[in-house]
Task: inverse folding
C-alpha cells in the first residue's frame, strides 16, 4: 500500500463529517494523485498577469474614444480589481487565477455594464477583447509557464511507487497537453480533466469524472491544488488526502488553515507499507497507458 507523507509525517484520511470514522484512524492508502495545473504544477503568474493587463488595455481601447476620462478611469479600476491585478502581482485567489475563461468574460462584461453600457454591447465588446487576447494564454505565450520547483523529481518518485497521476484543470486540453509535453511529464500522467470536460472544476463530479478515467475510486486519491475551490471540491468528492500548494505565486494563496499545506514538493514523500507480491517498483505506472497525443474522451482557464 502506498502512503503519502508530509514533512515525514503520514497523511491521514480526512474524515470531517463522517462521524463513524473519526480523524486519526491511520494513513490513507493512495493509488492516484490529482494535480491542479495553474499555480500548482506551473508558475502561471507572469503569463496570467500579461493576459489580464492586455485585456484591460483592449477594453479601454474599445470604449468610445470620446468617452469621458472619468468613465475610462472607472472602467480601468473596476477591471483591475475584478481581475486581481495588484502592484504585488496577480492575487492568487482572483478570478484570473482560479476561474474559467467564461467567468472572466462575464466579469469583464459586468464591468462594462457598470460604466453604463447595455448588456448586449458589454458582452459583444468583451468577447471581441477576449478573442484578441486569447493568444497570450498558455504555452504559446511570451511568458511560457515554467514547472514549479521540484515537480519533475516528485513525479519520478510517484511513478516509481506505482501511483497514477491526473491533471484536473480549467485550462483547455491543448494547454494542459502542451505543458506536459514541453516539460516531459506526459509519461507520468494517465488522465486529464480539462475545460472541455463536463462538469468542470470546481464541481465535485469533475473529480469523479477524472477518477473514472483513471480507474481509481476517489477514496484512494489525493488532490493537490492552490485554491480553496480545489480543496473544497476534493473534500466534497470524498478525496481522503487534500493538500494545498503555496509556492506557485508571488503572494502565497490564502488557503483553509485546516488543510495540510506544501511549500516545496520535496516536503512530500511516498512510503510503501505492504508492497504487493510480484509487482516491481517503477513498473506499475507504465508508459503504455500514459497520455499521449491521442485525444482524451467544454469552461476554460482565465
Ligand atoms: Mg490553480
Result:
Amino acid at each position: 500500500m502506498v502512503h503519502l507523507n508530509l514533512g515525514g509525517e503520514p497523511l491521514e484520511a480526512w474524515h470531517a463529517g463522517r462521524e463513524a470514522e473519526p480523524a486519526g484512524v491511520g494513513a490513507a492508502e493512495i493509488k492516484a494523485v490529482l494535480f491542479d495545473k495553474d499555480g500548482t504544477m506551473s508558475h502561471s503568474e507572469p503569463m496570467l498577469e500579461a493576459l489580464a493587463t492586455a485585456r484591460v488595455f483592449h477594453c479601454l481601447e474599445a470604449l468610445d474614444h470620446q468617452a469621458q476620462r472619468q468613465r475610462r478611469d472607472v472602467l480601468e479600476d473596476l477591471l483591475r480589481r475584478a481581475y486581481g491585478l495588484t502592484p504585488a502581482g496577480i492575487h492568487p485567489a482572483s478570478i484570473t487565477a482560479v476561474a474559467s475563461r467564461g467567468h472572466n468574460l462575464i466579469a469583464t462584461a459586468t464591468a462594462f455594464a457598470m460604466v453604463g453600457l447595455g448588456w448586449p454591447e458589454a458582452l459583444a465588446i468583451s468577447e471581441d477583447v477576449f478573442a484578441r487576447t486569447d493568444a497570450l494564454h498558455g504555452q504559446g505565450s511570451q511568458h511560457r509557464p515554467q514547472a514549479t520547483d521540484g515537480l519533475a523529481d516528485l513525479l519520478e518518485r510517484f511513478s516509481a511507487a506505482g501511483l497514477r497521476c491526473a491533471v484536473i484543470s480549467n485550462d483547455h486540453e491543448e494547454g494542459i497537453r502542451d505543458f506536459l509535453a514541453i516539460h516531459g511529464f506526459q509519461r507520468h500522467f494517465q488522465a486529464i480533466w480539462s475545460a472541455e470536460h463536463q462538469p468542470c472544476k470546481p464541481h465535485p463530479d469533475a473529480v469523479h469524472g477524472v477518477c473514472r478515467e483513471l480507474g481509481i475510486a476517489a477514496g484512494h486519491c489525493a488532490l493537490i491544488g492552490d485554491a480553496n475551490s480545489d480543496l473544497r471540491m476534493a473534500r466534497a468528492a470524498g478525496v481522503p488526502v487534500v493538500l494545498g500548494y503555496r509556492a506557485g505565486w508571488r503572494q502565497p494563496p490564502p488557503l483553509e488553515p485546516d488543510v495540510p499545506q506544501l511549500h516545496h514538493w520535496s516536503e512530500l514523500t511516498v512510503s510503501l507499507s505492504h508492497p504487493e507480491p510480484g509487482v516491481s517498483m517503477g513498473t506499475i505506472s507504465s508508459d503504455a497507458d500514459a497520455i499521449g497525443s491521442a485525444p482524451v474522451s467544454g469552461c476554460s482557464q482565465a
Remarks:
- The first strand starts at residue 2 and ends at 6.
- Residues 45-136 form one domain.
- Residues 228 and 255 are 6 Å apart (CA to CA).
